[in-house]
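Q: Give me the 3D complex with NAP.
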Amino acid sequence: MDPFRNLPVRVFDRDADITGVEAAIAELEKNAGREYPLVIGGQSYTNDRKLNTTNPANPDELLATFQKATQAQADEAIQLANRTFESWKHTAARDRANILLRAAEILRQRRDAAIAVMILEVGKNWIEADADLAEAVDFLEFYAREALRYAEHQPIVPLEGEEPELFYIPLGTGAVIPPWNFPLAILTGMTSAAIATGNTVVLKPASDTPLTGQLLADTMVEAGLPPGVLTYLPGSGSEIGDFIVEHPRIRFISFTGSMEVGLGINERAAKVAPGQIWIKRVVAEMGGKDAIIVDSDADLDAAAEGSVASAFGFQGQKCSACSRLIVHEAVYDSLIEKVVAGTEALTVGPPKDRHNFMGPVINQAAMDKTLSYIDIGHQEGRLLIGGNRIADTGYFLEPTIFTDIHPESRLGQEEIFGPVLAVMKAKDFDEALDIANSTIFGLTGAVYSHNPDHLNKARDAFHVGNLYFNRKCTGALVGVHPFGGFNMSGTDSKAGGNDYLGLFLQAKSVSRKT
Ligand code: NAP
Ligand code: MG
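A: Here is the predicted complex, encoded as structure tokens.
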């Protein structure tokens, strides 16, 4: 197999790329409103309770209808996954890896159709949607190779008179619970890692993005994944989420989402249900309050550009988004001027139009939550730019910046998950680092500085899972920047890294007397 390489993201400067996506969007709009049955082990169900997925740029536009799975159906899916595990766990790693590689090829071929779904279902701009697709492909390619590596002979200390060995075996049936914000990439990464290592999966997608998730479910079937290894189970987190997490036959939970939900899952998973014979393993990747530090000797143009991209890319709805900009007082005024100018230049509107940089936020609740933080921002600081809803259709918000924010204030501490940036002043680099480390989170961060001592200090003391120097704090690449955070940002699983598949495996030691 060739060594892993990241799939390059397109920037849509070629006519062929542009017309391909335009055609895919038109096709999707033509077929809008399709209803998908719930499929468990070859059996199709139509339920009374539906899950409608709509376009956040135009909430009246129904994209597709899904069935809301019931607890009884979740139970059925888990039992099926348990039974299928008995055969899937014996499948050769090579065969499992080949399914992932075929799935990657199918997604590459279906690239335009997949990104059209994300443009309409979550409001990603074209480049962000293409990056999401590319990351999904990267996860499949990377984990296929990793599954083979974990299946290789493992080094062990020899002993006279014995033949010891160690090998990895899968855990069992896992619940995979991804967020909506990387609706293809994260869902694909979490699911494929568990499957590649020989586990079976019940996948409950986020309620806002069942259509994007369906792409992976279909792709896996076409790639030859045997029935029952993966059951795609749309449904409400609050209705079936707890049930799945508490189920005695669930062996592990792989979650990515908010801190509140992640902590609840961690707590419920710790309680042993009647009939349960293991301690559930929980992998939980959660929120962030990510900061960029700008030092007195920084390249201010680069810092401003990186800050604007990190704060407002995908409307600030990335766990890695910059929501705090911590600036050395010597360059505070000049930097802010550049950041405001960069923000003024951003275009906001329906992402169907590829010239719009920012689309809508995901739903009404996200818009309301962001607007309530904007109210708080007016009390806690000074509005520099933005602060309003745009248009009355679609969940469009202006990119918003508050300055004079105190590090301990709510805008300085709480994850908003929308296009709101809080700017703070530091008297020197040490104070900037202290401010950066002053939240309960620890996901991503960036430092713009030319001072090697300061960069070394940040390398040691800036307590985040993903730290970047002189570049933006979003845009981690599979294999290059293994991803996961510290403290309340999660269990630091480092998705897209060499340790990740180990989270879905257990090691067995066998020794024979000679
Ligand atoms: P969320 O509200 O926590 O939801 C995440 C998933 O959990 C969804 O599938 C949701 O289903 C499900 N869920 C909700 N309640 C549940 C329960 N009681 N039991 C089991 N599952 C339940 O998060 P989100 O709004 O989708 O995503 C945004 C958050 O994810 C942000 O905080 C962001 O920082 C974080 N995030 C972190 C990373 C990372 O790598 N650290 C990456 C991306 C996003 P429903 O949709 O049906 O409610
Ligand atoms: Mg939607």
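A quick observation: The domain at 290-476 is CATH 3.40.309.10 (Aldehyde Dehydrogenase; Chain A, domain 2).
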